[in-house]
Design a protein that fits this description.
The complex is a heterodimer of chains A (559) and B (336). Chain A has 16 helices and 23 strands. With 559 residues, chain A is of the alpha/beta class. In chain A, the strands form six sheets. A five-stranded parallel β-sheet of chain A has the order 7-3-2-11-18, covered by helices on one side. The longest helix of chain A is centred in the last third of the chain and has 25 residues, at 481-505. Chain A is globular and about 65 Å long. The termini of chain A are far apart. With 336 residues, chain B is of the alpha+beta class. The longest helix of chain B has 16 residues, at 258-273. Chain B has helices at residues 51-61, 124-132, 154-164, 171-174, 177-181, 187-198, 206-213, 227-231, 238-251, 258-273, 278-286, 291-306, 321-331; strands at 2-9, 21-22, 37-44, 81-84, 87-90, 105-108, 115-117, 120-121. In chain B, 39% of the residues lie in helices and 10% in strands. Chain B has 13 helices and eight strands. In chain B, helix 6 packs across helix 9, helix 10 packs antiparallel against helix 11 and helix 10 packs across helix 13. The N and C termini of chain B lie far apart (61 Å). The chains are: A alpha/beta (559), B alpha+beta (336). At the A-B interface, helix 3, helix 4, helix 10, helix 13 and helix 15 of A face helix 1, helix 2 and helix 3 of B.
Chain lengths: 559, 336
């Protein structure tokens, strides 16, 4: 089938649905294509809150400065300014849409403290803020009557005359491949956590959008900036929100010390995430961990705060570790959480490719630079989701309906059929994915080295070869997940390669990129972004663009 | 530790393993749901593993053809609701050890939902019902300016987190006994979401919503079986929300319906005689002036009489009924 729309949004998390809602409001015929039902999107896992400088004692400048310092000065300051200036109105808009933000004594929006912030400016709904935003936005999509192609898996972007003109997608329920043709495409497909093991991310976060946009010609920027969250649950690696520390929880080592006093004497547990994660890793490496973990201690907060403001993580610790955090501290460790880098866009969500927009985690505007502050990711999704929705709808208005695409549909059909017909060689998709993900965590994780990164690149080349031998262990048409898992692994290989290459190129330590052979930040040579552009079988083209600095000159970063 | 998992397989293309055993048809009212073929897998997992761990292990290393929805693995995304030993649960929240019965754990798509494949249900009924309650804020006017939030007490927001915690996994609807026999019933998920907006002080359509919800298929079609409260993995307790809606609807004057009449007849009978007069309950619930409705209940009444199930024709009050009346007076409200 071929269907035509003005704008196709790929992904139905917060960024995607916000883009779709905006495009619909502006009169565009917009459709969302998503591999899971919108409510299943990983935005729902964001727990702690969303930042904005709304209070009388706060200012967008303060929010911007904290964000830029948090980014280790790799964020583009013009983009940060846009985000922080527009944050209050966008959050109020979500309040008007129905999000049940918690209030203060006056009935106004209430805040909680968060890491790396000089003020309590995080607005929240218990510890299910992402979910509260997601369900409200989904209901707005229903109200607006936006078409959703639900459980349709995007396999390719349709490029025509150098511009992006649609998405080829597999309808899971029927096994049929369709071309959704459009004048503009917004990629808002979320992150790539499955590339790392362990990760806080859901099984669906497989980097689809990075790979599709990259192969369509859009450069990927600062891909080495992979965030490790300081508090992920021992064992499962599930997220224990930063809001726990925002509400006052301590981090303790095996000696019972609040060890953050050595690493961030002013902000203590509320230092930026990269700083806190490295501090934990140091404690563990120096023998003051507990079975590879440190302890998150909430006991002094009391049952009332825990049960009212942090009910979900209380339940998760009970469910998955049988620990009641009211009575006992919870073992946690740093775990892969978020990709700061991504498809390079401007502040309107536009990529280097005509008709192609990106927003949310998959995009790199860049507002997070080398390290994202907690509660800035939800903000990023709604601000740049809205902006990319507006820009794509505007672009579509001045663009003729797209044509053709039958060839691509046929070649994609053939590609999938060949994949299904591939004989079994003993190589499993799951096994290869796990090897890749463990390798990424070990060699391209919290600490990197020249030797390790080159080993990683070589390993990745090996995985690529083995990937050619991965067979699909299900030959049916209806809901063939074995097929989509193989496609997802292909996406992850592209993400892994660009992360490793970007890390090799950046010969300094900045934000999440801690390079043991270059342990210092180097503003003379590295106050710049790295862009990787796909060149088929050849190595990607490497270019650099300077970081946009407006009013905040780089300073020594301490918390 | 080894666990044995018996998975109900279903495949419209007829692709089944040879060792898949055809199961029994489901009992009424689910006998139209296709028969599953059960395939048994042995999985080695830690003692504290959950059902989803087993399904993922099977899918990754034993049988890639097993279809199952899952994403977050931590009871946030709502993807993996399914029948586990005959009741709807999230696979990611159900410990294998607790759900092992006669040495095995049986998982399958619930017969109460249409099925796509294996453990993948078609949740169309859930989403249609969700949409039917118009689950969005109808803003109270005037909407505060673009820089101002609605001023409401924190307690009014905190109260709604119970309903906002709903992850639409559908476990409640899958096991809803009223939905099983009445596909038009809005069901627990949608009604909990209806309360989420009715209970929101920023919503302008409270009365209209209550009127809609009082119609057939709405709040009065719940039979209080408590399955939704038991099966909800997030503590939404949909029945509690339905009961709140009923009280609000009656207070708002929506009393001209079988549900309210039934509740009234029940309470009046108890107040009058200290016990239930079953003979008058049905006619009063139907509405004494509703001749067509009364005629429709006749066949059931005749069948009951034939089976000797008709309540006694003479209804006697219990001793000490005056004290019962006092209780009603003390409690106050509609029946004082």
């Amino acid at each position: 089938m071929i269907a035509d729309h003005d704008v196709i949004v790929m992904g139905a998390g917060l960024a995607g649905m916000r883009a779709a809602l905006e495009a619909a409001r502006l009169g565009a015929d917009v459709a969302v294509v998503t591999k899971v039902h919108p409510i299943r999107s990983h935005s729902s896992a964001a727990q702690g809150g969303i930042n904005a400088a709304i209070g009388e004692t706060d200012s967008w400048e303060s929010h911007a400065f904290d964000t830029i310092k948090g980014s280790d000065y790799l964020a583009d300051q013009d983009a940060v300014e846009v985000m922080c200036r527009e944050a209050p109105q966008d959050i109020i808009e979500f309040e008007h849409m129905g999000v049940i933000f918690y209030r203060n004594e006056e009935g106004k929006l209430g805040t909680r403290a968060f890491g790396g912030a000089s003020q309590a400016r995080t607005y929240f709904v218990g510890d299910i803020t992402g979910q509260a935003l997601l369900v409200t936005l989904y209901d707005q999509i229903l109200k607006a009557g936006v078409k959703v192609y639900e459980e349709w898996f995007a396999t390719s972007l349709y490029m025509d005359g150098g511009a992006c003109r649609g998405v080829v997608a597999l309808e899971m329920v029927t096994g049929e491949l369709h071309l959704l043709r459009s004048k503009a495409v917004v990629v808002a497909s979320g992150g790539l956590g499955r590339l790392y093991e362990p990760s806080t991310n859901a099984l669906i976060c497989t980097g689809d959008g990075y790979s599709l946009a990259y192969r369509a010609g859009a450069p990927l920027m600062d891909m080495s900036m992979v965030q490790y969250h300081p508090t992920t649950l021992a064992g499962s690696g599930f997220l224990m929100t930063e809001a726990a520390r925002g509400e006052g929880a301590y981090l303790l080592n095996s000696l019972g010390e609040r060890f953050m006093k050595k690493y961030a004497p002013n902000k203590m547990e509320l230092a930026a995430r990269d700083v806190t994660s490295r501090a934990e890793a140091t404690e563990i490496a120096e023998g003051r961990g507990i079975d590879g973990n440190v302890l998150l201690d909430l006991r002094h907060l009391g049952p009332d705060v825990i049960l009212k403001k942090l009910p979900q993580i209380h339940e998760m610790a009970l469910d998955y570790l049988a620990i009641d955090m009211i009575k006992d501290p919870v073992p946690v460790r740093p775990g892969m959480h978020y990709q700061m880098g991504g498809v390079k866009t401007d502040v309107e969500g536009a990529t280097a490719i005509a008709g192609l927009y990106a927003a949310g985690e998959v995009a790199c505007v860049s507002v997070h630079g080398g390290n994202r502050l907690g509660a800035n990711s939800l903000l990023d999704t709604i601000i740049f989701g809205r902006r990319s929705g507006r820009a794509s709808a505007g672009y579509a208005k001045g663009t003729a309906a797209s044509r053709g695409g039958d060839d691509l549909l046929r070649s994609e059909q053939k590609r999938l059929e060949d994949l299904l017909a591939r004989p079994y060689t003993g190589e499993t998709c799951a096994g290869l994915r796990l090897e890749l993900a463990i390798m990424m965590d070990k060699l391209v994780g919290l600490y990197r080295s020249d030797a390790g990164l080159h080993e990683a690149l070589e390993a990745l080349g090996g995985y690529r070869k083995r990937y050619e031998g991965v067979a699909v262990g299900d030959k049916g048409r209806v809901f063939n997940q074995a097929l989509t898992f193989v496609l997802e692994l292909g996406f992850m290989l592209d993400c892994g390669e660009t992360i490793i290459r970007d890390a090799i190129i950046r010969k300094e330590s900045r934000g999440a990129h801690t390079h043991v052979d270059y342990p210092e930040r180097n503003d003379t040579d590295w106050l710049k972004h790295t862009l990787l552009t796909y060149r088929g079988d050849a190595e990607p083209e490497v270019t650099h663009v300077p970081v946009t600095i407006t009013r905040w000159k780089p300073e020594v970063r301490s918390y | 530790m080894q666990f044995t998992i018996e998975v109900g397989r279903y495949n419209t293309e007829g692709r089944y393993a040879e060792n898949a055993v055809t199961g029994e048809p489901f009992p009424a009212p689910w006998n139209a749901s296709p028969v599953r073929r059960y395939q048994t897998y042995a999985v080695e997992l830690p003692e504290h593993a959950v059902v989803l761990d087993a399904l993922i292990a099977i899918r990754e290393y034993q049988d890639q053809s097993l279809a199952v929805r899952c994403a977050c693995r931590s009871a946030i995304c709502g993807s993996c609701a399914m029948w586990i030993n005959g009741h709807a649960n999230l696979a990611c929240k159900s410990k294998l050890a607790e759900f092992t019965k006669d040495g095995k754990t049986r998982v399958e798509s619930p017969p109460s939902m249409p099925i796509i494949r294996d453990l993948v249900s078609d949740l169309k009924p859930l989403w249609e019902k969700h949409l039917a309650v118009r689950p969005w804020l109808e803003n109270k006017q005037p909407i505060p300016g673009p820089n101002t939030e609605y001023r409401v007490p924190n307690a009014s927001m905190e109260e709604l987190i119970q309903e906002v915690s709903c992850i639409s996994c559908s476990a409640c609807l899958m096991d809803c006994e009223s939905f099983a026999v009445n596909p038009d019933f809005l069901g627990p998920q949608a009604l909990a979401q209806a309360y989420r907006y009715v209970g929101d002080p920023r919503d302008d359509k409270t009365k209209e919503r209550l009127g809609e919800l009082s119609k057939p298929g709405g709040i009065w079609d719940c039979t209080h079986c408590f399955e939704c409260v038991t099966q909800c993995p997030k503590g939404v307790a949909p029945l509690d929300q339905i009961l709140k809606l009923r009280k609000m609807a009656v207070d708002a004057g929506y009393t001209n319906n079988a549900g309210t009449r039934h509740a009234d007849a029940f309470a009046e009978s108890v107040k009058h005689s200290g016990r239930l007069n079953e003979l008058t309950l049905m006619p009063k619930s139907t509405g004494l002036l509703n001749i067509v409705g009364q005629l429709k209940t006749l066949p059931s009444a005749i069948n009951m009489a034939r089976a000797g199930k008709l309540p006694p024709l003479i209804h006697k009050a219990i001793p000490g009924v005056a004290r019962i009346k006092k209780i009603f007076e003390r409690v106050g409200g509609r029946f004082k």
